[in-house]
Automatic annotation (TrEMBL):
Protein's recorded name: MerR family DNA-binding transcriptional regulator
Highest taxon of the lineage: Bacteria
Gene3D superfamilies: 1.10.1660.10, Vaccinia Virus protein VP39
SMART domains the UniProt entry points to: HTH_MERR (SM00422)
GO molecular function annotation: DNA binding
Amino acid sequence: MGRVADLAGVSVRTLHHYDEIGLVRPSTRTAGGYRAYSAGDVERLREVLAYRRLGFGLREVAELVGDSSTNAVAHLRRLRGLLLERRDRADAMVAAIDRELEARARGLKVTPEEQLGMLGARLYDAIGGAYPATRRTEPRIAAQIWDALGDARTVLNVGAGTGSYEPADREVTAVEPSEVMRRQRPAGSAPCMAAAAESLPFEDHSFDVAMAVSTVHHWGDPIAGLREMRRVARRVVVLTFDTDEPGWQDRFWLTRDYLPEFATVLAEFPSLAGMADAIGARAEPVPIPWDCADGLFEAYWRRPGAYLEEHVRRAMSVWTRVGPDAERRAVRSLRDDLDSGRWAERNSGLAHLDTADLGLRLLIA
């Protein structure tokens, strides 16, 4: 089982769960009595994991792989069709964005009808479950979050957004106040209702664990939201940001040298110690890999050119919060320093680092 888990890129716990619910059961035993997978078992596991990574829920996957009229070739063709459909929908969104950018660059007025057709409700309906361009689950950060979930079976994801970091091997319920974000959740993902963190519509201790990933800074009352999570779940796991350390703004070259307004954005944000006290949590550092797949604000600490890209910045709420003037100044200064080599001189020590501690913290209660 351990060997299969390594090959498949999942945890042994996931395989145990699939065995327990009858989704993929190892059909053979080794001489020592350990569970082992036959070729047919591996084929079924491949199908299960492929459907899960396309966003299907466990019940839907069980129905798909349990269809006796569908063989391995049919599953492969179905998976290929789903992947092509997702690619086409993502391409349609990119094309729509490009059309509006071109129109705006030419000084043309974009009517409300055109905006809806390009980027609004109708386009979101068309693209279905396509994820935002740069905000994806980073596997190394996900592993730390999911490890903190422990043996929890029922998980509440608060401020769930489009569903990044939701564990595929647990029973997940999501809440997200933004209709735009809910629209972008992929088909087959966890059920998601409209609700705010500060007022969760669940009874006390309804879940084994409540999780919140890179969302607390968007809440109107973070402490109230955290206490609500503590009320409805036996344990709490929160990915957030540390502003307690003296000189924290200087940890990251972008806020140190180009965007000092970032400190103002977080001026009213609760301290890490205050958030931890509210739920009785301990804090763990979360290192950010140099090639982080999740385009969060600090993700490109070793890839500075990414911050010059409009589509990269638009996926980060910080830029909207600091305003267009600060954004234009920061981007212009960074571009100049990259062209002149000054950025490389200032930050030469980053070139050989694989990860960086830039204040990302995991609260575990």
